[in-house]
Amino acid sequence: MAHIVVLSGAGISAESGLPTFRDVGGLWKQYSVHDLASPGGWERNPQLVLEFYNTRRQQAREAQPNAAHTALAALESQHRVTIITQNIDDLHERAGSSNVVHLHGEIMKARSSVDESYLVEMNDQDIALGDLCPQGKQMRPHVVWFGEMVPMLESAADIVATADVLLVVGTSLQVYPAAGLVDCARPNCPITVIDPGEDVKVKGATIIRKTACAGVPEWIASLKL
Predict the structure, then answer these.
(1) Residue 104 annotated to the active site
(2) How far is it, in rounded angstroms, from Cα 15 to Cα 5?
(3) Is 192 within 8 Å of 163 (Cβ atoms)?
(4) CA–CA distance from 197 to each of 62, 112, 156, 200 (Å)?
(5) Edge-to-edge strand order for the sheet containing 119-121?
(6) CATH H superfamily, domain 1-17+65-104+150-225
(7) According to the annotation, is 8 in a ligand binding site?
(8) Where in the chain is the domain with CATH 3.40.50.1220?
(9) Which residues bind NAD(+) (predicted)?
(10) In 10 A of CB 154, how many CB atoms?
């Protein structure tokens, strides 16, 4: 059974109506990424950071998986599929994908600000100032902020190295270190990039200039493994 590895990014979730980090809009436009998504911003104003991520969590709850998510989930009936996503939403899982690695964390979980192993599923809840872990420290979103290490990066690199086929969808491959994962693929591994933009360049890759919803089902239909 072929191992298909998928690197997914914000573009696949955008088609479900989820704004990218820089497109959240509204009152958040007045703040920088360093205010909302960095350890320094958390230190300065944890209430602001919690409100921002509570908003994003609500948006994720209201969004629904799209045709690209469901097509990738259905692919598991024929092949071994591992999805490595830069997205913090749970749309891949809700579509039915069973093997998802989140590089940048998961918006639907909270964790202790002093113990990364202490995780809580948020379900329909928000994180409030004063929500404490067993060590008596504030709970925070289970996401990787700018300036923090990406704990799943090494595991993701090992997974990419085992790919028989690599699909990149919904990401312009401009954000490092995640963008460097394509370089971990074996020299003979076929790579396909599905992205409607013109700025994605991967040496030796097949480029499909379509959105995720249009390109992923088309790519799957053309697979010959």
Answers:
(1) yes
(2) 21
(3) no
(4) 27, 38, 25, 7
(5) 119-121, 105-112, 139-143
(6) TPP-binding domain (3.40.50.1220)
(7) no
(8) 1-17+65-104+150-225
(9) 9-28, 86-89, 170-172, 212
(10) 9
List pLDDT tens digits, range 23-43.
Answer: 665 556 778 889 999 999 999
- Give, to the nearest 10 degrees, the angle between helix 67-74 and helix 212-222: 20
220 labelled as ligand-binding? no
Q: Which amino acid is at 85?
A: T
Listed in sequence order, the DSSP H helices in 63-211 are 67-74, 91-95, 153-160
List, for residues 141-160, the tens digit of each pLDDT value: 999 999 999 999 999 999 99
**Which superfamily does 19-62+105-143 belong to?**
SIR2/SIRT2 'Small Domain' (3.30.1600.10)
89 is in an annotated binding site: yes
pTM, to two decimals: 0.93
